[in-house]
Specification:
With about 575 residues, the chain is of the alpha+beta class. Among the domains are: about 150 residues, no CATH class; about 140 residues, Heat Shock Protein 90 (2-Layer Sandwich), CATH 3.30.565. It has 13 helices and 22 strands. The strands form six sheets. A six-stranded mixed β-sheet has the order 11-7-8-5-4-12, with helices on one face. It has a five-stranded mixed β-sheet with strand order 17-19-20-22-21, covered by helices on one side. Strands 2-1-15-14 form a four-stranded antiparallel β-sheet, covered by helices on one side. Helix 1 runs antiparallel to helix 2, helix 8 runs antiparallel to helix 9 and helix 9 packs parallel to helix 13. About 25% of the residues are buried.
């Protein structure tokens, strides 16, 4: 029978160095998922708004169309032609704005339909003496699209491709279109217009003359003159048929003309699925004298199909913008959160590493003299030679003194690191302070035949206790590591002072010397101390509001204190 283990102490997890890329990858995936979900919702709202606008547009245009058809049917025979022209012009505008097929049937006979294709209708207002002005407006249909074959034969221009592209971007916000065009994100589309046409007044049709191909600027106004043509692709193609008999040449640049740029792709038109709008057949519409009861029907795209088209086909720029913004927000949030978590865990790891290295260095510095003391004590116990016993005793005292200094250094470092010293600002004569500290250890410099030159004057108002300790450690550092038979140079000014000396130490990374228990040499000898001197200097200066900068180059060590 298995028994459960009790009082099992869980294994302590090791503190490992954190990796930023790991946190970033995790949080980026999380925020991307959230932002994509939010984007899906926002895009859905935008498309729903587009769908709502499309339905409103469909209602507006079909209601106007219904009114015009009713007006036409109710008009007297002698004025019906006027209503017919109004209806014909609106049908063309319907095709332009709705980009959909529209056919009008009266008593089961088709009388009008929106032309297929792009720019296949031209409206001309005869308001010039050159065109027998009577203020009338006439609309002409392109007789046959085959007349435009010269435009497409070189493969540069495609009616369906560019007109559909125009239709899609027409639903976008104009500002977004301009921004996309400025950034080069929106592809350019070609379109065509007529410079001259040949019209047939009787059939209200026209034949193409000179055709211009240019880049479409969508919602911006574009005038076809030479200055505008310099900044855009502009090509003139002559599509004039061989036989223009019965047609009148009109230069569109010299009259008030409008070219409709709507588009209805014949391949996408399904009359069988069209919406049928009719008048109530049970109601009789009575006309004067020659009038008869007339039934009418309008075939066009249904409101549902039109709104779905607007919803799913349009808004490519809006969708792209929302996705780009969502990705940028996810990236920014991932970087921010990852940086915070990484910094927090890195701080914990650095504290752990600091404690580990500090403990190891302290143990190493204290272990060596303790081992020596143990050996000397053992010799004292068994050796009876008075001279040797005196020698062993002196060595024990030396090691005790070294350990005492090491412990004092650790306590001083701890005190300087906590920054608990009272901040009493006094005026300090820097030259006198350095000279006093030098005089206190002058004998140590003389033993190594090291000269000390102090130049300049300076004063600082600061915590004297902290400045004293910092200068004492810098001078003491020079007594230990300055090369014998050289000169230590100290230059003072009102901004601080610089201490420079040659050294035999092999320093790999001078910046590490400000870390506790770090020495210039890799070996940890007893004479060099615990390696806390510069750490204490920096802590004291930082507590007093000052800074320490150290450099090592060409065997020259330089310490700079700035107030």
């Amino acid at each position: 029978m298995k028994t459960k283990k009790r009082n099992v102490i869980p294994k302590k997890k090791a503190i490992k160095k954190p990796k930023f890329i790991k946190f970033f990858a995790i949080w980026l995936a999380i925020f991307l998922a959230i932002s994509m979900a939010a984007s899906y919702f926002v895009i859905g709202v935008c498309r729903q708004n587009s769908k709502t606008k499309a339905i409103s547009k469909w209602n507006s245009y079909t209601q106007e169309l219904t009114k015009l058809v009713n007006d036409y049917c109710a008009a007297d025979e002698d004025v019906r032609e006027i209503y017919y022209k109004r209806l014909r012009e609106f049908v063309i505008r319907y095709g332009e704005e709705m980009n959909e097929y529209c056919g009008i049937y009266i008593d089961n006979e088709k009388i009008l339909e929106a032309p297929c294709g792009a720019l296949d209708a031209v409206s001309i207002t005869y308001d010039s003496d050159d065109y027998e002005s009577d203020g009338r407006t006439e609309v002409y249909y392109l007789e046959d699209r085959s007349y435009l074959d010269p435009v497409t034969k070189n493969g540069k221009y495609d009616f369906d491709k560019y007109a559909n592209q125009n239709e899609v971007y027409a639903a976008e916000n104009e500002t977004l279109v301009k921004i996309a065009r400025f950034l080069g994100l929106k592809p350019k589309a070609l379109c065509h217009g007529y410079s001259t046409i040949y019209v047939n007044e009787k059939t209200h049709t026209f034949l193409p003359g000179e055709v211009n191909i240019f880049y479409d600027h969508y919602n911006e106004d574009f005038e076809y003159d030479e200055e505008d043509a310099k900044d855009t692709f502009f090509e003139k193609i002559d599509c004039t048929p061989k036989d223009t008999k019965g047609y009148k040449l009109i230069d569109l640049s010299e009259c008030d003309a409008m070219q409709y740029d709507g588009y209805m792709n014949p391949a996408l038109t399904d009359i069988n699925n069209a919406e049928s709008i009719t008048n109530d057949s049970s109601e009789d519409i009575n006309f004067d004298d020659t009038a008869s009861v007339m039934n009418w029907e309008i075939l066009t795209v249904s409101a549902e199909d039109f709104s779905n088209k607007a919803c799913f086909k349009a808004l490519p720029l809006t969708t792209a913008l929302i996705l780009i913004v969502a990705c940028l927000v996810a990236l920014l949030l991932a970087i921010t959160v990852s940086t915070i978590i990484y910094s927090s865990k890195k701080t914990v790891w650095e504290i752990f590493e600091y404690r580990k290295k500090t403990t190891a260095a302290m143990a190493h510095d204290l272990k060596t003299p303790l081992a020596a003391m143990s050996a000397y004590a053992e010799n004292l116990e068994y050796d009876t030679d008075p001279e040797k016993r005196a020698y062993y005793s002196s060595k024990v005292r030396e090691n005790v003194s070294f350990m005492n200094k090491t412990i004092e250094g650790i306590l001083m470092f701890t005190k300087s690191e906590t920054g608990t010293a009272k901040s009493v600002a006094r005026d300090i004569d820097v030259h006198a302070l350095i000279e006093a500290e030098y005089n206190a250890v002058a004998e140590l410099f003389e033993k190594k035949n090291i000269k000390v030159e102090i130049k300049g004057e300076g004063h600082v108002k600061s915590n004297k206790e902290l400045i004293d300790q910092a200068v004492r450690n810098l001078v003491g550092n020079a007594t230990k590591y300055a090369r014998p038979d050289t000169t230590v140079n100290i230059v003072i000014d009102n901004k601080g002072f610089t201490m420079t000396n040659l050294t035999d130490q092999k320093i790999k990374n001078v910046k590490d010397l400000k870390k506790p228990f770090v020495k210039g040499e890799e070996s940890r000898d007893a004479e060099g101390g615990a390696g806390l001197g510069l750490s204490i200097v920096e802590n004291c200066l930082l507590s007093a509001g000052h800074s320490l900068d150290i450099e090592f180059e060409d065997e020259t060590f330089e310490a700079t204190v700035r107030w």
